[in-house]
Amino acid sequence: MSPKSKWTSWIKVGARAATLAVAAVLLSGCDAVLLDPKGPIGEAERDIIYLATGLMLLVVVPVIGMTVAFAWKYRASNTKATYAPNWNHSTVIEAVVWSIPVVIILILGTVTWISSHTLDPRRPIASAQKPLEVQVVSLDWKWLFIYPEYGVASVNELALPVGRPVHFSLTSSGVMNAFFVPQLGTQVYTMPGMQSQLNLRADHAGSYLGISANYSGRGFADMNFKALAMEPAALKDWIARAKAATPLDTAAYRTLAAPGTHSVALYGTVEQGLYDRILNQCALGGICTNEAVSMARIKGPVPKGPLCDPKTGKPISIKS
């Protein structure tokens, strides 16, 4: 190959590499929200990411370095390099190759075991304050938040008190989904007829992106919400605005539950027992557990419909 052809080849390779690098930057388009946590759960999960990445780099960096070094040392033009075509074993190399991965696996296994318990979504966050209860329902394709303590509800806007733990009870009106506020941590699935639990805390005031992290149909891309972490005064104002809004009763819920995206909305009151009926899959019709039990007691005929245990969310059978 002539010198000119060689330079042309290198220029083409460089141009392609530069194009790929620019494309990667332009296509990334994402903020590193996982690495900018705003609560204790998010911080702990970020530290695990850093630890795992660092341990992996203990292997990746030396391997890349040795690949370049070996390629240079044993290039065809280096006549000083040792030529050993019959070499096939080194006890030292075997020890290093096996011991480092084993140590990394032991460390990662220990971290996984500890964090799977300390970061269990159901585990309460230690605090002198009583957790705020929030009931979450994933709909097609919007999020419904109910606040039993305040008697209000919201769609696609989650209000959180700064510094106070929040206990979430989560379910789905239909298809399986996933609730995730990256800067607060821990993705949790929502499933129809079942209830998941999650404990989070926001330590800094701000507006954080909440997303649906499980594909659920054509409106999935727009199924986002804002998590507003507010100081007491701001939260009080938000609750006052919510109380001035329209009520959320069964009829309003049925309209809300229809497939489609939805803008932010507030509800001043919530019909008693609405979340339990959503959980038991009878808010849109069907037979709830308490009604079925009453029918069983009087030994009357039990109409057909979904029957669920309110504690487990699992189907039950009632004999007349």
From TrEMBL:
Keywords: Cell membrane, Electron transport, Lipoprotein, Membrane, Oxidoreductase, Palmitate, Respiratory chain, Signal, Transmembrane, Transmembrane helix, Transport. The chain crosses the membrane at residues 48-72, 92-114. It is found in: Cell membrane. It is a multi-pass membrane protein. It holds the Pfam family COX_ARM. Residues 129-241 form the Cytochrome oxidase subunit II copper A binding domain. PROSITE patterns: COX2_CUA (PS50857), COX2_TM (PS50999), PROKAR_LIPOPROTEIN (PS51257). Residues 26-123 form the Cytochrome oxidase subunit II transmembrane region profile domain. Belongs to the cytochrome c oxidase subunit 2 family. This is Ubiquinol oxidase subunit 2. The gene is cyoA.
